[in-house]
Amino acid sequence: MQRGAKVGIVGGVVAGMLGVAGYGVYNVLDALNSDSSSTSKAGSAKSAGPPKAEEITETAADFLAAWSSGDTAKAASLTDSPQTATAALTGYKDKAHVTAVKATPGTAIGGKVPFGVAATLSFEGKSAPWTYDSALTVIRGASGKPVVQWKAAVVHPKLAEGASLETGTAKQPTLDFTDRHGKVLDPAKYPSLGRFFTQLRSKYAAKASGGTPGVETWIDSADGTVAETLQVIVKGTGSTFPTTLDADIQSAAEKAVLKRSGSAVTALDVNTGGVLAIANNPATGTNLAFAATAAPGSTFKVVTAAALLKAGVTPSTKVQCKAHDNVHQGKMYKNVEKEGNLQATFAWDFANSCNTAFISQVDKVPGNTLQNTAHDVFGLGQDWGIGVSTKKSSIPGGTGDELTSEMIGQGMITASPLDMASVAATAKNGRFHQPRIVAADLIPDRPSISTTPLSSGVKSSLQQMMRQTAQSGTAATAMSGVNGNVGAKTGSAEDGEGQPNGWFLAYRDDVAASAIVQNGGHGGDSAGPIVAAVLKAS
Fold first, then answer.
1. Helix or strand or coil: residue 321?
2. CB within 10 Å: which end of the chain, N or C, has fewer?
3. SS3 string of 171-215?
4. In 291-309, which positions are buried (b, 16+ CB within 10 angstroms) versus exposed (e)?
5. What are phi and psi of 422, to 5 degrees?
6. 3-state secondary structure (DSSP) of residue 99
7. Tally of structural domains, the chain
């Protein structure tokens, strides 16, 4: 039956039964929307509510067994979308060239069942094993039976809706990416780099001399582009392609984020803007390191402090830190770190992250002063063109409560660890250096960004306060053991319900880094150890 016809019949039934009790209407509608197999026993009672534990386990096992045996029709019939599932599972065999698969269920957690896949990929006489983990969810279907809730990610966890798997001759020749010292970076060793190598290869393979494509399995995005290479069956021949990354710092970053879920870190060379490390946990999840759109919290006070220092505030200026305060009858603010200090200096306020002290200085940054400082000095709010996909930060500016909120990194401000690592790098160097992951002259249409350097006085004062923060302020615990010329700033930022996001930025000599931990709470406790581990490896 065509969808339009079915909808028409349902509409007619409803229209003709407006005087009938809701129970009768429910049963007619339910019968029309149920699988034909579920209507063989007219009038039979249907199960309701979430599936029971034994139903979840049995349904998952039956689906995975059918998939493993190659019975696509049976496997698809055990889902809530048989037609879509049939197409996906057929493509798994025919387009991805999976000739054998064994899916083994794990222990269910609620309705979610994790499972492991051990498959064999075969293409033109060449074969390779392929293993990965995925998960499925069992729900109560329209017929009352438990079914697998169909999603593209059931087939492979990295599949987005509309994407598919493909195995064949790669669309670009092999490229071996090297770090800034010429060391080859194996994506198997550095899992966070996989997505970026795919982008770099797609963009720059034509600029590398020589090379032949290999046989690979990849994700075809809905738009037909290669989203990510998942498996290499036959390695092609190619040439090396240099990046700005550093293998040792990258290794430390990969290990550091594993300690906190929903975390990400970016490290930069303060003198060139070169990206030294990028890591996300999970490595294949959202690219928080380059594309987070979250309020950076008190780490943004580095920018605010630069604006206030330029306006005449000094580290020794007396700026009271009240437990609670508002300005101009606006929003009431409180402090996360300290209750208050009415004898505080601005350096103390910065080191101890006093919100009320910062908002009390709002009249010193009138109009678009704060927004202009972020844009014109720190390069924020602009497309940087680093060589791979990023999301630019946003500092919309404003008046009243929006301005006071932005002074402490809240309000409508959004940023990523890439942005805040660059803020730390600018504070250390004194001048913004546009981040990049490959040589600047290789990046097509890379915008030229002109910024104003920090004055020597502002630079010196800012570094003094960041050093105090690292040595005796809110960042001291995390930065303990990080030697050299150091500076830091902690942050926490509310982002809806749950714990605030934890933020941290710091520099050590010529390396700057920033991290976020979603729902991590205090940045010094959550994101701080990640940044410290990265800096210690530099």
1. strand
2. N
3. CCCEEEEECCCCCECCCCCCHHHHHHHHHHHHHHHHHCCCCECCE
4. bbebbbbbbbbbbbbbbbb
5. -65, -35
6. strand
7. 3
- Pairwise CA distance, residues 79 & 93, whole Å: 18
Instruction: Please name which of 375, 338, 304 lies closest in space to residue 474, comparing C-alpha atoms.
Output: 338
Cis amide leading into 282 (omega within 30): yes
d(CA 512, CA 393): 18
Answer with the one of 93, 121, 154 that is the final residue of a domain: 154
Q: Say whether both 66 and 146 belong to one domain.
A: yes
Indicate whether 194 and 277 sit together in one domain.
no
**Paired tokens of 279:** 């890591």
User: In this predicted model, what pLDDT tens digit does every residue of 200-245 receive, in sequence order?
Assistant: 888 887 776 667 888 999 999 888 888 888 999 998 876 788 999 9
Residue 286 sits at the vertex; the CA angle it makes with 280 and 289, to the nearest 5 degrees, is: 45
Phi, psi of 129 (to 5 degrees): -75, 155
DSSP for 367-382, written as a single string: TTHHHHHHHHTT-TTS
* Residue 137 in domain: yes
Q: Is 207 exposed, middle or buried (0-12, 13-18, 19+ CB in 10 A)?
A: exposed
Q: Is residue 85 part of a domain?
A: yes
> Quick check: 17 pLDDT over 70?
no
Calculate mean pLDDT across residues 446-457: 96
Alpha helical stretches, state H, 327-455? 346-351, 355-359, 369-376, 400-407, 417-429
In this structure, which amino acid lies at residue 407?
M
- 299 neighbors 307 (Cβ within 8 angstroms): no
Helices (H), 21-171: 22-33, 53-69, 72-77, 82-94
Looking at the chain, how many residues does it have?
538
User: How many Cα atoms are found within 13 Å in the side-chain-facing hemisphere of 346?
Assistant: 22
Q: Give the SS3 label for residue 404.
A: helix
pLDDT score of 322 more than 50: yes
Domain that holds residue 123: 53-154
Q: What pLDDT, in 10s, does the model give residues 161-197?
A: 999 999 999 887 778 899 999 999 998 899 999 999 9
Round to whole Å and give the CA distance between 515 and 26: 52
Tokens 């498959």 locate to 119
- Which helix (H) or strand (E) is 534 found in, with range? helix 528-536
pLDDT (mean) for 507-511: 98
Whole-angstrom Cα distance, residue 468 to residue 105? 53
| Same domain, residue pair 447 and 507 | yes
Q: Which of 79, 77, 211 is nearest to 139 (CA)?
A: 79
Identity at 103, one-letter amino acid code? A
Both 192 and 147 in one domain: the answer is: no
